[in-house]
Structures are given as C-alpha cells and as structure tokens.
Input
Amino acid sequence: MVTIALTGGIGSGKTTIAQRLAELGGVILDADVFAREAVAFGTPAVRRIADRFGRDVLLPDGSLDRPALGALVFGDEEARAALNDIVHPEVRRLTGARLDEVLADDPNALVVHVIPLLVESRSNYDYEEIWVADAPAAVREERLVEGRGMTQAEARARIAAQASDEERRRIADVLIDTSAPLDETLEQVDGEWRRLAAAALRAPETQTYGV
Output
C-alpha cells in the first residue's frame, strides 16, 4: 500500500485533484465525508454535540444544524477544540474501518487521504507523501466569491481561519499548482501518478508504506 495525504486551503482545488486520482485508480478516503458520517442523524457524536453546545444546534427532526453549529465555533478556539474532541476520534475510527476494507480487497492499493485541515490537526504526518493543492489566497478568495456565493469578507475570514499557504508548503512533498489552467494541473497530477506507479513496480514485494 502507498498512502498519500492530500491537503490544501479552502478553494484550493483538492476535489479536482482527488477526482483525477480516483480516475487513475487511487482509492479516495475523504475526511470531510467521514466527518459528515460521524455526525449523521442519531449518531453518538450528535448527542454529545447537543450536550456540549445545546439543543439549538439541532434541527426539529433531531439532526445536526450544521450552519448553527458552525456559527458557534467559528472564531472560537475553545469551542472548536471541544467539537474536534468529539468528532475527530469518530472520523479516525471510520477511516480505519474503511482502510481495512480497502486493504483486504487490494493490499497494493494507492490510498489518498483527503485531509483539508492536515496542518491544523497537528497530525504526525504518517504518510508516504504529502501533496498540497497550492493556489494563492487571492485566487482562492475569488473562487469562493464566484463559485460559492460568499461575500469577499466571508471568503477572507474563512481563509484567515485556516493555516497559511507557507505552513502548508513547509510540509509538502509535492505541490500541485491549481492556479494554472486545468489541463496543466491535471497533467501535473498525471505525472506524479506515473512516478508513484513506477516506484511501486521497482519496490521489493516486502516493502510496506504509510499508516
């Protein structure tokens, strides 16, 4: 197994890269997907969130009111840490269970962990490689305004709340330039994939990778 961590700031194009890697044969494990599963209706995490933050973060049917919860924790480090303490262990459990399924099916899989907040989580970075979707903050701000309907102030606040471009670049083994035209970005992804595939063919059968 080869494990890659794919990260990047909001609006950086992580999804585009992940989709391309999936087309090429990579197995995508997306932390955001597992986070949504962790707080699905009726889960223990939702009950713990309601206990910590109050019933106002629930909709009338008992499901999580994500915008209401987001408004509570945005800009509040203590509240955000409390939420992470509830959600992150469940995300790790779900990720591990899915990874076990993947390896049972294909021990030589190339697994891509999409982790938007890799730097912020202070992970031990136990991956074969870390790939960073890299685009300047100004480009990402424009994407958030034009593509997601945010105001300029909202976009800037969301970007400022995350790690800086420099912090992400410091942990990168591979930088994918997503400010380039799409075909150039995908060409870079394809080239990195070919590099990994060639390395896997040269590796001894006993070699192991990643987490």
User: Anything to note?
Assistant: The radius of gyration is 18 Å. Residues 205-211 have pLDDT under 50 and may be disordered. DSSP finds nine helices and five strands in the chain.
